[in-house]
User: Fold this.
Amino acid sequence: MAAPEIYAVALPTPLRRSFDYLAYDPQDLLSQKPDIPAQVGMRVRVSFRHQVLVGVIIEIKDHSDFEPHQLKAVDKLLDAEPLLDKELLSLCQWAANYYHHPIGEVLAAAIPVALRQGEPAALQQEKAWQLTEQGQDTELESLKRAPKQQQMLAQLRQEIATTGSPRVLNKDLLLTNPNRSALKALSDKKLIEATSIVPDADRTLPILKEAAQTLNPEQQAAFEQIELGHYACHLLYGTTGSGKTEVYLQAIDRVLEQGKQALVLIPEIGLTPQTLGRFQRRFNRPMAVLHSALNDSERKQAWLLASQGRADIIIGTRSAIFTPLKQSGIIILDEEHDTSFKQQDGFRYSARDLATLRSQRLNIPLILGSATPSLESYYNARQGRYKLLPLTQRAGNAKPPAIELIDLKRQSLKEGLSQALIEAMEQHLLASGQVLVFINRRGFAPTLLCHDCGWLSQCPNCDARLTVHQNPSHLHCHHCDYQRPLIHQCPTCNSRELHCVGQGTERTETLLQNRFPDFPVIRVDRDSTRRKNAMQNIVDEVNRGEPCLLVGTQMLAKGHHFPNVTLVAIIDADGGLFSTDFRGAERMGQLMLQVAGRAGRAEKPGKVLIQSHLCDHPLLQTLLRQGYSAFADFLLQERQLSQLPPMRHMALLRAESTRPENALELLQQARTLAQQISPSDNELQYLGPLPAPMEKRNDRFRYQLQLHSGHRGRLHQLLQVLIAQLEQHPLSRRTRWSIDVDPQDMS
Ligand code: ADP
Ligand code: ZN
Ligand code: ZN
Assistant:
């Protein structure tokens, strides 16, 4: 008798293993050998513990540790071709090993929901628009009373003229001009009509839709270093506005010339519609965009377009690192220092680190771009592992902004703002400039305090204060989402002397509205941009160029190009200098320069004013007087002395429980076990169990154990054995615990 065919199937369960199934059940006459041979990477539907699940075949073999009669047969083979090719599957397997996360859950992160639920891997037709005969003949002039429709019709004609295709995808039209009502109105007037097509790359068209910029000498030098066809990691280290994006675009142009695809990862798409617009304006090739705001079918479509090679440029956020590529040519990761590239819960992977691995295996170049590189990448460049491509000048005519510190010591402040700062704002507004005010706290004030008895607005579930919000008025915990109405009387002493302590964006907004009643004040934070298109509307308003004040959180720091901002004010530089996280200073420096980089990005020169009580602090001085490289070198020396990443490798074991003793005990056990597993590894060091920086959050008590090692491989061997033992431990079922490899955020 022939050996049975057995599939090892990865299923979406928290178990760190795969499950064996028979290809078919020889005893059951209804179960038939599938007509097409199964391959690794295809999906199957199986029953698993009274559920029906969709899994992925990760191995095909002829024996199992179980007897054939103990194995169930798969219900159905769902694909005729592998959904995941070998490269992507092996990337997922590598990630499961490296991050010590169950393969089934890793695959679940990689595959769009619709496909995970078993939908066929088939592309859908997409909505597109074409001109009617009337639409072809109409003079644009005749629409001058409806400028939005006029603009949309012009755009559609322009697209048709440049691409030579009579139909233009709805999503492409809306990407740069999100105006559905204009399309509807044009369609009601019978100037355009809707149709549907399956998007595809027409490679007969010229690649460029618009001419490329002439690179300046630094850009040219960087561009020439990027060779296609083999692996190298490039750190494109260019100050904000130095033209990194132009270098990406020209590198992509060469990739497209070779008929290959470019995968571009960016931190947050919702915040940067401008970036997408630049890619779309440049190239005559279809783009697929993958981000969290897509619905399930849009996400599946984009993923399949990439997989089938019908999209040549794939732009996405973190999880897009798992996009299948038919003909990969380059991977680009913009703002590589951004913490959003590391997932902070569940499957805690770093898209940046996976990008290095993936491009190595694909043997294609990788570009990491940033004005303020992470110490990890900066160190790799210093060590010669990455090619350093510096861009020190701003591109075009823009000049770098002048940065000045305002010493707050002994100054009288108005709601946190110094007189000097308010005067500077006024000057810039009167000179028709726009002012950007950065304050990294949303809400009105971070604390409510009773002036008579010292009562503080504590969250009942967390070691944290409730933030005062005025709009709408309430108290809110930003850690567990607890909310209650704002109170005006102290709950312990009944005093009415409740004071709002500290500054949030709402408070600064109110102050500025009162101080500058003639200028619009626009607040940008998570609360003010919740509605769909809110950010786009803000960007549009700012880019109209009228003088205004923008007040916002770090959302303002991310990649925006506001040409008329001439003054950037940083209200408080000191927070990061006291952080408990060893990356606090690094993050502070990055954020400050990113915010500062919003000033003077076009013709008008920019100025940056930074308020601080610690103007003489060596870190602040180094950053502002000598620049980011000196600052990074300074921090690297500190990391060397304290033996912290990137000098050594770290893994963080977290445990949390409503009963603190359980979590502590589990970590104590983990440490004991680890010491037994690797008794004589003198590279290995432990720190903890220690309370997390916020010990109680959402009614759970949180602890952590740090494992440090100079030897990555040995650290991973230890983790593998340790996790297997911990999973068997009785406490591990009563405590929520997780492992974080290369943790980025120690909270
Ligand atoms: P970065 O990505 O480094 O922040 P951008 O690529 O956004 O910088 O470039 C900043 C501005 O400079 C953009 O308006 C861009 O069009 C312009 N620019 C970039 N490269 C050139 C160039 N070689 N010549 C003229 N303008 C350029
Ligand atoms: Zn009181
Ligand atoms: Zn809370």
